[in-house]
Amino acid sequence: MVKSIFAVLSAFCLYTMGALGYLGVVILMGIESACVPLPSELIMPYAGALSHPDVRAELSNQFHINLPLFNLILAGLVGAIGCNLGSEVAYWVGASGGRRAIEKYGRYVLIDKHEIALSERWFRRWGEVIILVARLLPIIRTFIAFPAGVVKMNRFKFHLYTFLGSVPWCVGLAWCGQELGIHLLDERSFLRRMLHKFDLVIVVICIALAGWFVRSRLRALRSYQS
């Protein structure tokens, strides 16, 4: 099941990029930053993988689609732009309805009350600069836009910090995707041999991570019911 979910999400990301190019990266990262559970850790590595001609060709063959050839840095930059656009949605929700609106409608995208509370504590403790820092941290990077909207943080500063923090995150993930794609293509590489040797270990780790994700999302539903 985990493999099938991963395959569906991968196909969705790649078909979107194939149809829309860089705009597809913007849209996908916008969806992620609007707190819809579509991980940037999947989107940007694929965008980075498409910056290498051989990897792009291999993915095109696997998914039977003519995928574009990206520039690594440009892919990271447009990904950061997508983060800004999606974060504007979360900011607007926080500014318009406050915490009650987030708690009321967050269930529809499985936002956990605990995640909201955590982002609020971080914002109160560190102030506006946490917007920049949080963009480099998994999970909290998405939800930090809510408290910024609640306190009506200056929009220019909000988007400036969001962009500056999102660039290294997006470029870094894209670079990882490019490097992983290159290694997977090289039959003689150490990584390829290790992947074949430890397939079972990798599957167990992936299942454990998927289980943790599902459990946290179910906890979000229970928190709204209590």
UniProtKB/TrEMBL annotation:
It holds the Pfam family VTT_dom. It is a multi-pass membrane protein. InterPro entries: DedA_domain, VTT_dom. Keywords: Cell membrane, Membrane, Transmembrane, Transmembrane helix. Its main location: membrane. Residues 69-178 form the VTT domain. GO terms for cellular component: plasma membrane. The keyword Ribosomal protein does not apply. It is found in: Cell membrane. The chain crosses the membrane at residues 7-31, 69-94, 129-146, 198-214. This is VTT domain-containing protein. It comes from Pajaroellobacter abortibovis.
